[in-house]
Every structure is written in C-alpha cells, then in structure tokens.
Amino acid sequence: MSLGFLIRRYLLSDYTRLFAMMRLEDDWHGYTDPLTAERYQRALESSIVYVAILDHHIVAYLRARDDDGFGLYIYDLLVQKEFRGHQLGKMLIEELARDYPNGTIYVMSDVDVYYHKQGFTQREGSILVVRDA
User: Fold this and answer.
1) Which of 6, 10, 39, 117 has its CA 20 to 30 A from that of 90?
2) Is the dihedral of CA 70, 28, 79, 122 positive or negative?
3) Neighbouring C-alpha atoms within 13 Å toward the C-beta of 36
4) Is the pLDDT of residue 91 over 70?
5) CA angle 11, 38, 9 (to 5 degrees)
6) Residue limits of the N-acetyltransferase domain (predicted)?
7) In which domain, by residue range, is 25 found?
8) Burial class, 121, CB count within 10 angstroms (exposed 0-12 / middle 13-18 / buried 19+)
9) 41-70 pLDDT, tens per residue?
10) Angle subtended by helix axes 15-22 and 37-45, to nearest 10
C-alpha cells in the first residue's frame, strides 16, 4: 500500500525539516549537534541529496557524492522508524540511479544487512579509518 510519498531532490529550504527528522534518531546526533550542524549543512549543499516527503514532513533522505565520474558514493541513508518497511530507502536509491544512469553506485555502510536485503550483495573493498579526528 502506497501512502503517497513524494521523492525529490533536497532544497535548502528543507534544512529545518530534515534536521528535525534526524534528531529523532539516536545515532544521528553527530550531524545535528550544535557543534557540527553548520558543517553538515555545508556537506548537504555540496552533495546529491534526495528526500522522501509525506504530508509536508521529511520521513527519509539519502546523501551521496559524485566522484567526478568514477562512481557515486552513498554516505547517508535514513528512514524515520515509523516509515521503515515501505521501501523508502530503496526508492531513494532508485531515484539516484535514474538520475545518474551511467554511474556505478557504491554505499558507505555500517548496516550491510539492510543493503543485502535490498539485493545489493556485490562487495568491492572496504573502508578503514586512517585517523579519527
């Protein structure tokens, strides 16, 4: 059953609604904390970002970066808890794929189980922390 979600590109005017949704999640305060929020806002402005909207509320988002034609990297994907199970994450990824049909899409993930459930099982390399700032 579709609830009438709208998937579209992020607008600067979405900032307040996006951060309100992110603040509902325990693990996302690193982006919304007063010390880092401005820096993350700049990251949003320089990224490829999609939002899922229902009744004027942002209920999911995806943030990716284009590596100058060498691949698209999904850095953030969040679906508000009460809207999980409606395929919103997959819809956001599919929108990215439609808009960039010639780009290989990679995901930077710490929840591989989710992506495997979506059918994304090909692994290429890994990410290691060289220095934690």
Assistant:
1) 39
2) positive
3) 12
4) yes
5) 15
6) 5-133
7) 6-117
8) exposed
9) 999 999 999 999 999 999 999 999 999 988
10) 120
Give the total number of structural domains in the chain: 1
User: What does the pLDDT read at residue 20?
Assistant: 95
Distances in Å between the Cα of 51 and the Cα atoms of 16, 30, 64, 82, 93 are 13, 20, 12, 16, 11
Q: Is residue 35 part of a domain?
A: yes
Q: Look up residue 124 and give its two tokens.
A: 């290429």
Exposure string (b/e) for 106-116, b if CB count within 10 Å is 16 or more?
Answer: bbeeeeeebbe
Asked whether residue 82 is assigned to any structural domain, the reply reads yes
Angstrom distance (rounded) from CA 42 to CA 64? 13
Q: What is the CATH number of the domain that holds 101?
A: 3.40.630.30
Q: Please give the helix or strand (H or E) that residue 96 lies within, else none.
A: helix 88-99
In a domain, 79, yes or no: yes
What pLDDT, in 10s, does the model give residues 107-116? 877 777 777 7
